[in-house]
Amino acid sequence: MRLFLAVNFDDATKQRILAVQRRLREAAQGDFSRPENLHLTLAFLGEVSAQRAAAARRAMDRTGAVPLSLTFDQIGSFRRDGGDIWWVGLAENPALLRLRQELCGNLIAEGFHLEERRFSPHITIARRVRLSQEVDCGAILGAPFEASADTVSLMRSERPNGVLTYTEQYSVCAGRDEP
Q1: Helix, strand, coil % in the chain, rounded to nearest 5
Q2: Is it the case that residue 178 has pLDDT exceeding 80?
Q3: Is the predicted pLDDT of residue 175 greater than 70, yes or no?
Q4: Distance between CA atoms of 4 and 1, rounded to whole angstroms?
Q5: Residue 176's pLDDT is what?
Q6: Which helix or strand (DSSP H or E) is residue 57 part of?
Q7: How far is Cα 121 from Cα 119, in angstroms, rounded to an integer?
């Protein structure tokens, strides 16, 4: 199973992100993320056996989850051959960074090898993007917006019939009693 840990969003937050995506669509071509796939990746685990998935769940249980107040205040892209990845980014958030750091520490204690690149919290809204005109990132973002989240999810990534699909396998919510 190809797994990652993420924060998923409620429908109202997804609608705000999709509004940004719609404005980008007006100036670009690419593969735009489906609404049900919008998430904030905390840690990518890669190909994981069922036994290792249990270790990820243990790490999540030890970490728990905390209520987060997130501010979406930027848009940008990661340059790639074949088209760029466009994203909506988050303002600096110490609580999110602490949650991720604790989660990664618990995953490492369970034997996972995680990517070492700098954490750049973002939600991917499109891949393989080619701009058809100059864009004003501020106009595409619109006004910054806020959302709350209180759940960390273990997600499975697969491509049934060629369609990228993310499915929640397990979750830990803030305030939930220990298992």
Answers
A1: 30, 40, 30
A2: no
A3: no
A4: 10
A5: 53
A6: helix 50-63
A7: 6
DSSP 75-144: EEEE--TTSEEEEEEE---HHHHHHHHHHHHHHHHTT-----SPP--EEEEEEEEEESS---HHHHH-S-
> How many other CB atoms are there within 10 angstroms of residue 30's CB atom?
18
Task: With H, G, I as helix, E, B as strand and everything else as coil, classify residue 174.
Answer: coil
| Contact (Cβ atoms closer than 8 angstroms) between residue 109 and residue 56 | no
* Strand ranges of the sheet holding 68-78, from the earlier edge strand across to the other edge: 28-32, 122-131, 84-90, 68-78, 145-149
In the numeric block, the tokens 């609608």 are attached to 15
Task: Please identify every residue annotated as catalytic.
Answer: 39, 122
pLDDT recorded at residue 174: 83
State how far Cα 100 lies from the chain centre.
Answer: 12
Judged against a pLDDT cut of 50, whether residue 179 lies above it is answered with: no
Instruction: Check if the beta carbon of residue 60 is closer than 8 Å to that of residue 165.
Output: no
The per-residue pLDDT of the chain, averaged, comes to: 93
pTM above 0.85, yes or no: yes
How many CB atoms are closer than 10 A to CB 12? 9
Note the pLDDT tens digit of each residue in 107-126. Answer: 999 999 998 888 999 999 99
